[in-house]
Design a protein that fits this description.
Elements lengths: L1 H5 L7 H11 L10 H6 L6 H27 L7 E4 L7 E4 L3 H17 L6 H24 L1
Helix pairs in contact: 2-4, 4-5, 4-6, 5-6
């Protein structure tokens, strides 16, 4: 009866519950649903699917946590700019030392590459794609400027 414990997975989101309800034909979101009712309804026949959806929910949670960690690592990063005052008539701004940014960029892209092989829900995948394209555009910009 591990499928019952799978229903306690704290990472199950609305989309997972919706899938479970659709498959079983029951309202599994009802707080008053007793275990006896679950057993009588024959949900044990859906044990494998329940376990798969619960596992997917856990994987998506880890995926999203990694994306959030990448996002957080960029929160306080600033591009170092240097004002070139040699010619007062024509001041120019140059990019300063980008060593830290390059290391963070490489780390972030490596972490995204590891995530890219995982299957996850569309909302999370959209966030992943946004970060991937943003960082790739940043690489292109950085390469052209330095």
């Amino acid at each position: 009866m591990s499928w019952i414990s799978q229903l306690q997975n704290p990472h199950l989101r609305k989309r997972h519950w919706d899938a479970l309800c659709k498959i079983s034909g029951m309202n599994l979101k009802d707080d008053t649903l007793a275990i006896k009712e679950l057993l009588n309804a024959g949900n044990h026949q859906y044990a494998k699917i329940i376990e798969e959806i619960s596992l997917q929910a856990s994987k998506e949670f880890i995926f999203e946590a990694e994306l959030n960690a990448i996002e957080l690592s960029w929160k306080d990063i600033s591009l170092p700019l240097i004002l070139d005052n040699e010619n007062n008539d024509d001041q120019q701004v140059q990019i300063g030392d980008t060593t830290e940014i390059k290391m963070l960029l490489e780390d972030s892209l490596t972490r995204l590459m590891a995530l890219s092989v995982q299957n996850c829900a569309k909302p999370i995948k959209l966030k992943f794609e946004k970060w991937k394209s943003t960082l790739e555009a940043f690489v292109d910009t950085l390469v052209r400027r330095i």
